[in-house]
Amino acid sequence: MSNKRVLVTTADEGTWPKDEPILFLGEWCRQYHRKESWSILDAEVVSPYGLEPNQKSKDHQLLIRVYAELLDELSHELNKLHQCSHSQRYWDIVLGYWLQRFVSVCINRYHGLMHALDHDDISEVIVYGNDEYKLATLNSYGFQLALYNDLWNQNFYKRILDFKGISQRRRMPVEDESISFQKSSPLVQEKGLKVWLKGVWKSVFRFFIRNDDAFIINSYLPFGMAVKLQLSLGQFPSFWEQQTVESSEFENDIRSKISFNHSDHSGFDLFIRQILPESIPTCYIEGFSKLVDFTAQLPWPSTPKFIFTSNNFDTDEVFKVWTAQKVEQGIKYYVGQHGNLYGTWIYHTHQIPEYSTSDKFISWGWGNRTSHIVPAFVFKTANHPVRKNCSGKGILLIERTIYNRLATYDRHQNQEIYQQEQFRFVNALLPDLKNDLNIRLSYYTLGSWSDKQRWLDYDPTLPYDAGTALIWDLIDKSRLVVHSYDSTGILETLSLNIPTIAFFDQFYFDEINEEALPYYELLESVGILFRTADAAANHINQIWDNLEAWWMSTELQEAKNKFCHQYARRVDNPVEYLKNILEN
C-alpha cells in the first residue's frame, strides 16, 4: 500500500483532492476559520522550514550574500537600461528594501518547497498558474500585498517546479485574475486638531519655503515637536506628504534587455537570477522615467540643508528616487529609528538600507561611537508625560498577529506556539484579575490568522478590542500593560514609566544579540520580563495588590532606567537635542 501523498501548496480548497492523502506545504494552507473543511481530510502538514537556529543563521548569511551580489548586478543592468550612471548607493536607496525582501521570499519559497520534496513521500504537486502571469507588482508595497495572494504564490511555486524540471504536477484550472496591487504604502490616518492644523499650514507654508530648507518628512515626532524642530532650524514649518505616480504596465520587450550572469551559478543562485527580471516592480523598470520626471516637478526644496525621515525610506517610491538624486548631489541623508529590534536583534545588520545608505542613523538611545549611528531618544512619545504613580484600572494585554510570508523561515509554527502561550497566560491569572483584563488584538488584518475567532473559541466572555480603539487611549486607562512579544510598545511604555510586564518565549531570547542580552536580563532580574506566560501571570497575581510598591522600588527603577538609557531614552530638551544632531 502506497504512503505517498499529494503536496498541496495553497489555501484554495477548490484545488484540494478529496479522496487522496494530502500533505499541506504549511499551516497557511489550512486556515483556522475553515477548520471544518480540512479537519475531515486525510492530511498532514510538512515540518516547518528554516526554524532551527543553525538553518536560520545559514539562510540569513545566504540572504546577505545574494542581496549584495544582486544589488551590484542590478545596479549595472538598470544603469544600462535607463541610460544613466547612478551609484550603487543610489539604487540601494531606491530599491534596496524591495530587493532584500525579494531575496528573503525566494529563499523561503524555494528551499521550503525543496524541503518538502526531499523529506516527504510525494506523488505529485498541486499548483496552478500559467506562463502568461507576471510576478512583477507595480511597486514595493504592492509586492508585500502580493505575498498574501494565492495566485501570486502559486505562480511563484510553478516557476520553482519548472526550474527544477519537476513535471509530475497537477495544474488546476482557475479563472485568471488581473492582480496589479496598485496600492501605495498605507499612511497614518490622523484626526481632529492635527488634521485641521496641517490643512491650514498646507495652504500657506509653500509661500515661505526656501530652496535650502531642511527637508523633513514623517520624522515620527509628535506634531507640536515637529513644528518646534523646524522653527529651531530657522525655517517655516512644513508638512510634506507622500506622493504617488501613475502606474506603468509590464512590457516584455523592455524586460528582455535585462540579463544576469547565469554561467557561473547553479541551484538557488541560478534560479533567483532567472526569475528576477520578471519580478522587479514596474515602477523601477517601465515606469522609472516617469518617476524621475515627476520628482523633477516636486515643489520640494531643490538644495535642502539635509533630508530626514523615520519612515519613507521603505515604500515611498517618489521620496526614494528624489532622495537618491539629492544624495548624489552631496545632500546629507539622515534616517531615524521607527520601532523596535534596532540594536537588539541579531538579524538587524548594517546591510539594511536605513543603515547602509544614510549618512546618520539616529537611534532611540543605542549607538557606536565608531559608526554613523547616533543615540537620541524615543521620538514617538517624546511629548508624553512620564507616569508618576500606578494610576488607571485593569490589565491591558497587547497581542500580535501573523505577518506576511516574507521571512526566510516559516513563521506559522512560531505563531501557533505564541497563541497557546497567550491562552496559558490568561488561564494562569486569578479570577478577579481575569475580570480586569482587556485584550488588544492587532489592527493588522491582512493575514488569515483569525485572531478574533481563536479568542472567541477559547473564551467568549473575555473582553477584547479588535484593533479599533487608539492604542494610547487604552494604555492611558490601564494600570498595567502586558506585552506578549518583543515590541516597540515595550520601549514606549518603559520610557514613560508605565507599569509594564513582558513575556516572550525562547525563540525571541535566542535572537537577542550579545550586546543587548545583559539589558534584557536586567529587566528579568526585577520581574519586568519573563520567558514563560505562566511565570508572568503568577508574578502579576503576587504583586497586583501592591503594584505601586513593586513598580516604584529603587531596584526596579534603576534596572528599568539602565535599559531605557540604552534602548528607550528620554532627554530633557528633545527638540534642541535632535536639532544639534541634525546640524552637527
From TrEMBL:
Keyword Transferase assigned: yes
MF terms (GO), sorted A to Z: transferase activity
Keyword presence, Transferase: yes
Protein origin, superkingdom: Bacteria
Keywords, comma-separated and alphabetical: Transferase
InterPro entries: LIC12162
Protein name: Transferase
